[in-house]
């Protein structure tokens, strides 16, 4: 099975996903995940998603990821997240893809505020890249 990855947060930034995977990843395709909300994580600049009826999470769909890429991404995402298969809609087709979901035991760390990608790019990215 081909490794598709749906990213909705910091990994939508090409420099970040390339740094994490330690190679140049092909540009992603815009995609969306229905019935999941993308929320701010308490005291963090990155988001987390969880099931939320009627919400849509927009992100990027990456293709042709290697096993090594997935291993690097697992380490990057850490203990808050679980890598799971989801069904996403892209402009030309629907795909089953890996996605990092907040583990249910960490739902209390999600704020009610939706995470904003443009705010991240304009305000938080410079500090995030220093990590």
UniProtKB/TrEMBL annotation:
Output the InterPro entries linked to this UniProt entry.
Answer: AIG2-like (IPR045038), AIG2-like_dom (IPR009288), GGCT-like (IPR013024), GGCT-like_sf (IPR036568)
Domain of life the protein comes from:
Bacteria
- What are the residue boundaries of the Gamma-glutamylcyclotransferase AIG2-like domain, all occurrences included? 5-115
| Keyword annotations from UniProtKB, A to Z | Transferase
Entry annotated with the keyword Cytoplasm? no
Q: Does the keyword Transferase apply?
A: yes
Q: What protein am I looking at?
A: Putative gamma-glutamylcyclotransferase
């Amino acid at each position: 099975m081909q490794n598709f990855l749906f990213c909705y947060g910091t990994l939508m930034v090409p420099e970040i996903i390339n740094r994490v995977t330690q190679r140049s990843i092909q540009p992603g395709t815009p995609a969306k995940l229905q019935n999941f909300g993308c929320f701010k994580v308490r005291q963090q600049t990155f988001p987390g998603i969880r099931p939320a009826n009627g919400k849509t999470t927009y992100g990027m769909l990456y293709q042709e990821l290697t096993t090594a890429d997935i291993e690097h991404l697992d380490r990057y995402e850490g203990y808050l997240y679980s890598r799971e298969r989801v069904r996403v809609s892209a402009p030309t087709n629907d795909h089953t893809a890996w996605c990092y979901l907040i583990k249910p035991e960490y739902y209390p760390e999600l704020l009610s505020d939706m995470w904003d990608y443009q705010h991240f790019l304009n305000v938080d990215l410079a500090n995030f890249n220093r990590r």
